[in-house]
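Appendix C: a fully annotated inverse folding record. The material below is reproduced so that readers can follow the format used throughout the book. The structure is listed first as tokens, followed by the designed sequence.
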């Protein structure tokens, strides 16, 4: 299976640069999983496609302000650091720029010395392990000095950092938002719950690897990044009871999907636990848990469009994407949504 099998042509002006003022007013394309049927709706109409007894699964990770601008202590040269993953209490795996000037032993400073760090290791992929020094609580220092690590295709400044968070974000750890969830308001979630739809939460901390392009022509040669997840006993119970009662499991986002499919046994039963997942879902994959998916429109040739194609069929998905371009949908993180059902 070739990377080029998942290409579509996207005009640059369709890449959404700013979030809508009303989260739930984005457009919603409804795509029939089996027959490729397409409807055009507004996101708040998603309630019309949910049934009592269904289970909606959301990723409650919270994006941290993981982008830090500082300087090298020895020279004063400007540097940029993106926090990827906490490896111990005060050490983080990071992307550093410019990398050539930040080798093991180099020291960096941010905010006039409010935060300091030392490069203690360099990984094979070029990422660095940085040990940080600070007074007080790291999260409070980071909140003061850091900015949101927006995807590279968003060039506008984000005026309100909360717009790159879901309204149900709870646990700090992501370097990118689970963007399918950005369309939900608290009111809409309450309306869905009042309908008799069960709501369950998983946690998967999204890494910047989600934006890493597939470089190999044969997608089977692609090395998938790993991300930390947790599924609680309560979440497992809610989902398993819904499945046992004949309800559908509707996943919100590819991150929730990857989490659920990582923790399900062969029969589709959710097993609670935590760990790292590097599951790569592409056409031919047999889904064990999910019956439907709410997602955004993804980059051409990305692992995300491959996952969506595994659920709804590559031809149906590419037809839907071509239709979205023709209908001038807004694409990517701050863009419109798709419901596959």
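Designed amino acids, in order:
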């Amino acid at each position: 299976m070739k990377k080029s099998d998942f290409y579509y042509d996207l005009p640059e002006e369709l890449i959404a640069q700013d979030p809508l003022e009303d989260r739930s007013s984005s457009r919603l394309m409804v795509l029939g999983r089996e027959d490729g049927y397409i409807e055009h709706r507004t996101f708040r109409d998603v309630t019309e496609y949910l049934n009592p007894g269904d289970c909606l699964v959301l990723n409650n990770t919270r994006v941290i302000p993981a982008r830090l601008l500082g300087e090298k202590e020895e020279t004063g040269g400007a540097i940029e650091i993106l926090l990827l993953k906490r490896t111990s209490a005060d050490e983080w795996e990071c992307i550093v720029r410019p990398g050539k000037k930040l080798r093991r032993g180099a020291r960096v400073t941010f905010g006039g010395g409010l935060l300091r760090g030392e490069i203690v290791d360099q990984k094979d992929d070029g990422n660095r392990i940085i040990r940080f020094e600070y007074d007080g609580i790291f999260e409070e220092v980071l909140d003061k000095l850091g900015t949101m690590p927006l995807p590279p295709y968003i060039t506008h400044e984000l005026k309100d950092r909360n717009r790159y968070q879901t309204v149900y974000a709870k646990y700090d750890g992501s370097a990118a938002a689970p963007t399918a969830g950005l369309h939900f308001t608290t009111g809409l979630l309450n309306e869905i719950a009042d309908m008799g739809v069960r709501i369950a939460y998983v946690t998967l901390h999204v890494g910047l690897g989600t934006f890493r392009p597939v470089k190999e022509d044969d997608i089977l040669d692609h090395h998938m990044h790993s991300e930390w997840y947790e599924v609680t006993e309560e979440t497992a119970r809610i989902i398993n009871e819904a499945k046992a009662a004949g309800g559908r499991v509707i996943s919100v986002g590819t991150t929730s999907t990857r989490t659920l499919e990582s923790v399900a046994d062969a029969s589709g039963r959710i097993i609670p636990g935590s760990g790292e997942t590097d599951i790569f879902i592409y056409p031919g994959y047999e889904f064990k848990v999910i019956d439907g998916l709410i997602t955004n429109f993804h980059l051409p040739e990305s692992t995300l469009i491959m996952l969506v194609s595994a659920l709804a069929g590559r031809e149906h998905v590419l037809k839907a994407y071509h239709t979205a371009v023709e209908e001038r949908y807004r694409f990517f993180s701050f863009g419109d949504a798709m419901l596959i059902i």
